[in-house]
Amino acid sequence: xxxxxxxxxxxxxxxxxxxxxxxxxxxxxxxxxxxxxxxxxxxxxxxxxxxxxxxxxxxxxxxxxxxxxxxxxxxxxxxxxxxxxxxxxxxxxxxxxxxxxxxxxxxxxxxxxxxxxxxxxxxxxxxxxxxxxxxxxxxxxxxxxxxxxxxxxxxxxxxxxxxxxxxxxxxxxxxxxxxxxxxxxxxxxxxxxxxxxxxxxxxxxxxxxxxxxxxxxxxxxxxxxxxxxxxxxxxxxxxxxxxxxxxxxxxxxxxxxxxxxxxxxxxxxxxxxxxxxxxxxxxxxxxxxxxxxxxxxxxxxxxxxxxxxxxxxxxxxxxxxxxxxxxxxxxxxxxxxxxxxxxxxxxxxxxxxxxxxxxxxxxxxxxxxxxxxxxxxxxxxxxxxxxxxxxxxxxxxxxxxxxxxxxxxxx
Length: 411
Ligand SMILES: [Zn+2]
Prior knowledge:
Strand order of the largest sheet: 1-2-8-3-9-16-10-15
CATH superfamily of the largest domain: Zn peptidases
Structural class: alpha+beta
Number of domains: 2
Largest sheet: 8 strands, mixed
CATH topology of the largest domain: Aminopeptidase
Bound molecules: zinc ion
CATH class of the largest domain: Alpha Beta
Radius of gyration: 24 Å
Number of strands: 17
Distance between the termini: 22 Å
Order of helices and strands: HHEEEEEEEHEHEEEHEEHEHHEHEEH
Oligomer: single chain
Shape: globular
Strand content: 15-25%
């Protein structure tokens, strides 16, 4: 059996450390405080007997659980990230355990009247009788992704303490800056040297993801022509009006607030302007590669229309691909997903395979040569003060991880 107490204690220890990342920083990692947790993890991995545990100049932690089987077994990697979301305080996290949850609303903070209500968060029903770790209603919890870290550490502890549990080589990786989208910028896939890997960075119990968006960013700069309004007739080009016209060419129904599942979108994320010039910024998302290309072609056509109407050079479009759907890279090694599904079923977890409406570090790693689906870490309501994690879900995530390892050894 895995050590449930150690699993819980680890989680509580990690969430109390402030590891918030910062989008506005240009350093790597974006905040030095993340390194404190990375260093602690190296120390703890050493104490568990992983002698090669190390931290590199970027803050990535890598370590190996050496194989203890004579069979030829693939090298499996497990990854989690140390940072927490930049838009929510991560300092002075005061986790609280609610034992034997009774199914009612959870009062987090009486002073500020912060509650996780069953009406707003009906998924609470799934956890009656379980032990929930919640916040004090003033910060996030950081189960994203410290639940993943605690689970990986606990699986390592199990393997090191149970030599009769046979396994191939296991690689452990802890990354920084996932929440600001730079999580694998400097990650050395060759040095990590796994055949495939899993991030433990998903949400509720059972989640398994290997499809994500194809993603691009589009910036449209509109060059207007400012003239004294009294003399503007037939001369002025008001960049803001042209920018709004440009935006109106994109279908309103294809915005994030009106789309779900496999529906892609154009999302306006920035708009600045004066009469003289204006800038529109979008992100473009679609699971389908073909539709993704069509979207980029369409926004290009819209900019061309503006130029045809107002003059060449009025609209300048910059399009940049950001990441791609990992499905293309995972499908050729679909056993990675099938084995995870089987592992969940064997430990009594119902698999919930769903497309991610976003990206993951795993998506980028998949394109860097390391196929990397995402497994649940167990938390709910990430990035906010309503975040919580059931200890039972963390236990199951640890069991799933060990079962995957066992299945590959016994193949
Ligand atoms: Zn995460």
